[in-house]
Amino acid sequence: MQKxxxxxxxxxxxGIVVQSIGFKRYLPVGSPEVAAENFNRWGADEILLxxxxxxxxxxxxxxxxxxxxxxxxxxxxxxxxxxxxVEHIRMALNSGxxxxxxxxxxxxxxxxxxxxSTIFGRxxxxxxxxxxxxxxxEFTVFSHSGTLALCGTPDxxxxxxxxxxxxxxxxxxxxxxxxxxxxxIELAQAVCSAVEIPVIICGGAGHPAHxxxxxxxxxVSAVAAANIFHFTEHSVLVTxxxxxxxxxxxxxxxxADYRGHQFDTAGRVSKVADDQLHELLFQHYPKEIx
Length: 290
Description:
Number of domains: 1
Radius of gyration: 19 Å
Number of helices: 10
Structural class: alpha/beta
Strand order of the largest sheet: 1-4-5-6-7-10-11-12
CATH class: Alpha Beta
CATH superfamily: Aldolase class I
Mean pLDDT: 93
Largest sheet: 8 strands, parallel, barrel
Order of helices and strands: EEEHEHEHEHHEEEHEHEHEHH
Low-confidence stretches: none
Distance between the termini: 29 Å
């Protein structure tokens, strides 16, 4: 059985990494290359690079951006942003992407996913679904960066995209985006129950415990997040260590390891006791790699 994945998202708007809040407000973070390098070192299983300016500006994510991020990442890289043709997919893969995520174009062109999966293999085609809630509290699917409401339920659309040849389903939760209230478990499980391919849930993580809930209370194959991983150094490693305390096994391929540490109420590593710190004075450690 494959271990679940923790995916770090790099959301880019106007060339700058941002924290997204409800698909409406954006706080600047910094450079896409630096974010990729950090996530690569901090133990992310994959990186999802999203250019949210691409579709509104009627363009595709730039080759240069993909190349710069790929150069700083040695883990699987998925890219998204305005991809609407087989040539766009080819361009992204040739620029260093391992997988591509299709959102708005998948709703407009029923042949894009079948053609992409036939030519490049379904393992590199991710169908992305943006989901919010209407005034009645019902799940509503959106496209074009959450601005255009569509017909159909998230689970039915996921099934359709799976039947067309998508290798994975990415569910972006608009009503939880940046809210730090946790993943929408009901939505995640509804989509998981509709398909037999891996499902990734994204939107709402604000505490390591939210990742635990996402993995233990639904059948998702991966949990993705952006904002929470920009707050502190080693954020992905700390989150993974917190998750593993609950018995969920994850990949650990980095030098630093926070398993066995205690955590405070915010989910951060607690201060080591003074007597333990004193003992470290007499232990040799090779040069730290972070």
